[in-house]
Amino acid sequence: YNAKRAGGGHVVYRRNDDQESRLRLELTTALRRDVATAAMILHYQPKLDLRTGVIRGFEALVRWQHPERGLLMPDVFLPIAEQNGLMSALTQNVLSQAIRECARWHAEGNRVSVAVNASATDLRFECFPQQILDLLDAHDLPAKALTVEITETMMLTDWATTDRVLDRLTSMGVRVSIDDYGTHHSTLSYLRRLHTAAELKLDRSFIADMLTAPRSAAIVRSTIDLAHDLGITVVAEGVEDAETLDTLREWGCDQAQGYHIGRPAPIAALKPQFAKS
Ligand code: C2E
Ligand code: MG
Ligand code: MG
Ligand code: MG
């Protein structure tokens, strides 16, 4: 900041930096106020079973209904939550809403599952599994109806705690899913270490060009086979057209998500999708 102020030619940049940090400060204050409230709303995206054509469940994706700035997407506020110690409160709020909603679906006769994205912070808290158990009990939802999605980078630090938390979740009956599979380093070592994972989600980047790039196609096909050898369900992320969906079905992929199947949407818009299940 000082260096920029010293250099006379950086006035414009300095002003942008100021605006940027003012916006950040404003969002931080507002997020602290809203993080545990109904201002955090969930959109749900369907997970389609490719063998039966039935919707098996929904992934909960958080948005922030900001009073002045409208609907904000997770890439805007997740880093702010992470940096200000608000992540656990956010996850609790998301879990609570998602589990309550899923229990309601079950009560209406739709035995679908719900998936929630965890953060690295969550996996470092020994009490995280117990918090989930309490919410499941409170809403009378069976643990197997809940999937917790994690990414490989979340397992980089504090191995011992992370492994214990994931083992505990699995022994409770909660499904653990490896999100964005294939985008990180040492993906295969994580697959070996994460012996309790029930599902992997092949990253959108492989799905996007699998019809045009033979290397992506080979990676998708062999990952499906590898996962099946390990007894793991494969979900393709980011399916945007019918041809990709048909090809994934041919290759034996278990489930798919993507704009072609259904965009993330508020609860009120989900009714027609239930009709398909
Ligand atoms: P993710 O868990 O990998 O979720 C998939 C993202 O891809 C979502 O973006 C979704 O809207 C988008 N998407 C789905 N289908 C398609 C498609 O066909 N094409 C394209 N281009 N995009 C598609 P979103 O909702 O912006 O979420 C971004 C990321 O934010 C998520 O990636 C997840 O890592 C994180 N996130 C979302 N909700 C939560 C939450 O409640 N807690 C935590 N800790 N992280 C969350
Ligand atoms: Mg996810
Ligand atoms: Mg993903
Ligand atoms: Mg992603």
Automatic annotation (TrEMBL):
Could you tell me which residue ranges the EAL domain spans? 24-277
* Residues of the signal peptide: none
Q: What is this protein called?
A: Bifunctional diguanylate cyclase/phosphodiesterase
Instruction: Name the species this protein comes from.
Output: Paractinoplanes lichenicola
Q: Coverage of the whole protein, first to last residue? A: 455 to 731 of 731
